[in-house]
Amino acid sequence: MVFRFGFQNANKATQECPCGFYNHPEKDCVCAPGVVQKYLNKISGPLLDRIDLHVEVTLVNFTELASTERNNLIRERVIKAREIQDKRFLDKEELHCNAQMSPKMVRKVCQISEAGTIY
Ligand SMILES: [Zn+2]
Q: What is the mean pLDDT of the chain?
């Protein structure tokens, strides 16, 4: 079994329905029943076959997303994570972040707990 640790962000280039408000947290979709599914069926099978993981997400409120307080908390977490990675890769000049680790190194660094191996 081979795990690839890079991933591609398959950003959905289409709306989920013609009006663009399907699954919108604040606005109502005005499309007739069945129109959404018909619209989604227009995405080609070969394109869908190339996407391993499909995750439906709702729109994020811009004000919440742009919150300075929230961003500062995220920034602190990123800085702490980078510090941990700096220590982890101290003797490996070519590595700077977890995404650059080889599968062998991931197995060494990312030990799965016994509870995590049940499934
Ligand atoms: Zn709609």
A: 82
